[in-house]
Amino acid sequence: MAVPPSAPQPRASFHLRRHTPCPQCSWGMEEKAAASAGCREPPGPPRAAAVAYFGISVDPDDILPGALRLIQELRPHWKPKQVRTKRFTDGITNKLVACYVEEDMQDCVLVRVYGERTELLVDRENEVRNFQLLRAHGCAPRLYCTFQNGLCYEYMQGVALGPEHIREPRLFRLIALEMAKIHTIHANGSLPKPTLWHKMYNYFTLVKNEINPSLSADVPKVEVLEQELAWLKEHLSQLESPVVFCHNDLLCKNIIYDSIKGHVRFIDYEYAGYNYQAFDIGNHFNEFAGVNEVDYCLYPARETQLQWLRYYLQAQKGMAVTPREVERLYVQVNKFALVRSDPIQPVLQGEASSVSLGDAKVTSHPIPPLPIRLARPVPQSSILRSGVHTLRQGGRGDRWVSREKALSLPPAPSGCH
After folding, report:
1. Scanning 215, 219, 283, 285, which has the fewest C-beta atoms within 10 Å of its C-beta?
2. H/E/C letters for each residue in 373-392?
3. 294-322 average pLDDT score
């Protein structure tokens, strides 16, 4: 196949070049014509149509009036007096209400209002692009519209999972299959960079001046945390984990199980983007420990992880995988699991400076107090004893330890994995 004419390096992404982008690949149409070249990538899903926009602002403290105005635009045949609403309270940063007419909610519109100051953390235009991309690959509901401070989309039938559900083999197999599907969404010919380090440095910039001085005994100094962040980047970048399209926020409540269709789908794409494969999986494994009542003894055992990863790799490759392939991913995942990404909004609102996880107070890891959170017992596997400020749980013996000391720690307490 012909190659496009040479261009100065580094080559800018197609949207920065003055070319008309090909609808099927990342070359510009002018490039392809000059090179007499066809698409270098197989045709992907058709480009999504533009999303409708309404200049309506919904009051986050009184959602219903604004939501009903949007429903009049999206469902003009619905009679206002017949519209039912249901508010969801599981969200951390956003507010959500469902609007529907029929009891079965087969045609249901979700109105989501962005949380205050979330624009500091979330690129809303990128979120819409992610939504459309995932929808084009059959991984997301329909996006109906955006408005001044939110968006409206299709309700997915099913139930949101909890920590007790994602530990069940029949369900974690479905989760592994869906994650593999999302991870195979190609980058349209570009060379994506992982978002992890950019996000971490951005979060650190936002929160490092909001550390409560009263927590100085629990939280290392900013200078120490900056060193730890640099060490994390240096160490984890050497693991050669592939960069793939990731959800990046796979909390239990972001997984919807449809028992009738027998599949799961992921929701909420605010933080989706290209990132390390092992980070997305490791971040999800941390969810096994729970959210409100965190018990890291519930972090998946080696046998559970290997089975999960085998399901994932087989789905991704479409063939049987070797134990060596599974083991390699296992090592990568458990090191990336040391970084748990939780960009929780109250930190930026000055409403929180620490998070209590059961008996252990977690204030930073490596960025205090959030959004980067890491805490679990040093596992029995020696490959994981290189964590940073790893928190050991043991009653009054709880303490922070440095990455150097972590190398010589004994196994985790009995019953923990």
Report:
1. 215
2. ECCCCCCCCHHHCCCCCEEE
3. 95
pLDDT of residue 290: 84
Contact 266, 247 (CB under 8 A): yes
**R_g of the chain, CA atoms, integer Å:** 23
pLDDT over 90 (residue 134): yes
- Separation of first and last alpha carbons in the chain: 51
Q: From the options 3.40.1440, 1.20.120, 2.40.70, 3.30.200, give the CATH code of 52-155.
A: 3.30.200
Contacts of 59 (CB under 8 A, 6+ apart): 65, 66
Least confident span in 73-77, 355-359, 404-408: 355-359
Domain boundaries, the chain: 52-155, 160-406
CATH topology of domain 160-406: Aminoglycoside 3'-phosphotransferase; Chain: A, domain 2 (3.90.1200)
**Spatial CB neighbours of 38, under 8 Å, sequence gap ≥ 6:** 1, 32
Instruction: Give the 3-state secondary structure of residue 169.
Output: helix
Is the pTM higher than 0.85? The answer reads: no
